[in-house]
Amino acid sequence: MIIQRSKIIKPLLIGLLLLIFSCSKDPECCTIIEKSITNGQFVFVGSIGSNENPTNNDIPNTIVNLEVSQSDYNSYEIGDKYCFD
């Protein structure tokens, strides 16, 4: 009977661990390259990539537009790192 329990419990534990670790997501971070307020929306334009200078053509970056709260907008400056989910 003990052998049968271990055959059942082991796959369940492995499945549970996989579920827990696959659901945890690290936040994505960008460097703020522009800030704007349009129609009451607070927006960061951010650069995601290994190249800290988005105008340098050596390594392409991904540019994102992020709507943020007024508090976040006021707390961050151009050049700061901003992390989001």
What do these coordinates show?
By secondary structure, the chain is α+β, with helices and mostly antiparallel strands. The protein has one domain (25-84). 33% of the residues lie in helices and 35% in strands. The chain has 2 helices and 4 strands. It has helices at residues 2-23, 70-75; strands at 28-38, 41-48, 62-68, 81-84. Strands 3-2-1-4 form a 4-stranded antiparallel β-sheet. Strand 1 and strand 2 form a beta hairpin.
User: Can you tell me the overall shape?
Assistant: elongated
User: Which structural category do the helix and sheet elements fall into?
Assistant: alpha+beta
Q: How many separate structural domains?
A: 1
* DSSP summary: helix tally: 2
